[in-house]
Design brief:
379 residues; alpha/beta; 12 helices
Length: 379
């Protein structure tokens, strides 16, 4: 072996031994939901519906709604969530290097929600941007943040998802208005050399879903006019049956792909974390991959569909049940159509951070209004 080959071999061995693999791990979760709770009884006074109809088709009992008297815009919800995360983890705000926002309901076309949050919290050494992939947005942002961490260029990033869905909901449409709620949650993503964190992902977009799920006006293709407002084209429109069919098929296929690639089965999967579109979709996905329902995170019954907020809000509520080394599979589906799945080994025992039992909403316990008021820790 010549000198050049020996040098190359030595260089390879050095970096194999010395340079450890960098993983991206979640080290904390924060969240916020508005204080006003719209239940099905009140919903039935707004639109022609009933609690029975909503529960049978969607499985939503209550949803949180951001009222103008509390605050305005998605940035309000996200700033609250990120502040809670920083307070809870006791991380120096100046050490946060980037903030990635996933949302479908930005405050403005520009500036970005990320810039508003950074300004609100005075994150001096942070840059950030918004990304929009509808209900799959948080999943994609987590993938993007992971790649930034694993590149070695970043050590600490905040990923935040959430939506002010009531701002684009038509409360005259009984098929869609009971589905959505408002809320936001976020995670701290940090570099580690431990065998925890994001392990694998599978993401896809087919570009075939426009006619089934969209907001027709307000963008550059159909700018706002008196006519678009009169025709109610600035609200979310969806054809539920088509969306349901594609969501179940694609979320299930994505989870199966991730599970097979990583030898994950019902025996070693701790949790499935699905997008909270409606309870029927979550049940169908669980049945398709033969995972018992008790291993599926569900909060759609009292949170409704918060779009990009659903996945991190699940983590926020279930944090106390999570243990270091737990295998989690996230999956989401949104407009586009866009979908995917992500495999993560959880990085810490959630009980040391969680300040509330997961059974908070059970009968006889503290009321949900009191619980949220306590957990949100209003300024």
């Amino acid at each position: 072996m010549n000198r050049g080959a020996l040098w190359a071999l030595g260089f390879f061995i050095f970096f194999t031994v010395i340079m450890e693999k960098i993983n991206a791990v979640i080290t904390g979760v924060g969240g916020y939901v508005p204080t006003y709770i719209l239940d099905n009884e009140e919903m039935s006074t707004i639109v022609d519906t009933s609690d029975e109809w909503i529960m049978q088709r969607i499985g939503v009992k209550t949803r949180h709604i951001l009222k103008p008297e509390e605050g305005r815009g998605t940035s309000y919800l996200m700033t609250k969530a990120v502040k809670q995360l920083l307070d809870k983890t006791k991380v120096d705000p100046d050490s946060v290097e980037a903030l990635l926002v996933a949302t479908t309901t930005p405050d403005y076309h520009f500036p970005s929600v990320a810039s508003l949050i950074i300004g609100n919290l005075d994150l001096k050494n942070c840059w950030g941007f918004d990304m929009e992939a509808a209900c799959a947005g948080f999943l994609y942002a987590l993938e993007m943040g992971t790649n930034m961490i694993c590149s070695g260029r970043y050590k600490r990033i905040i990923i935040v998802g959430g939506d002010h869905m009531s701002s684009m909901t038509n409360y005259e449409d009984r098929n869609t208005c009971p589905i959505f709620g408002d809320g936001s949650a976020c995670v701290m993503l940090e570099a580690t050399t431990e065998d925890v964190g994001v392990m694998d992902s599978f993401n896809r977009v087919d570009g075939k879903g426009y006619e089934f799920l969209h907001m027709a006006a307000g963008g550059s293709a159909q700018m706002p006019t008196h006519e678009t407002v009169d025709q109610k084209l600035h609200y979310c429109y969806q054809e539920g049956r088509n969306v349901f069919k594609h969501a179940v098929t694609n979320m299930s296929n994505a989870v199966e792909t991730i599970a097979k690639r990583n030898n994950l089965t019902n025996d070693n999967i701790a949790w499935i974390v699905p997008h909270q579109a409606n309870v029927r979709i979550e049940t169908a996905v669980a049945q398709r991959i033969n995972v018992p329902e008790e291993k599926v995170m569900v909060n759609v019954d009292h949170m409704a569909n918060t779009s990009t907020g659903t996945l991190p809000l699940c983590l926020w509520e279930y944090e106390s049940r999570l243990k270091k080394g737990d295998n989690l599979i996230f999956t989401a589906f949104g407009a586009g159509f866009s979908w995917g799945a992500l495999y993560m080994k959880w990085g810490y025992d959630g009980s040391k951070f969680a300040d509330t039992p997961p059974e908070f909403y059970k009968e006889g316990e503290i009321s949900r209004e009191e619980w949220y008021a306590k957990r949100n820790k209003k300024d």
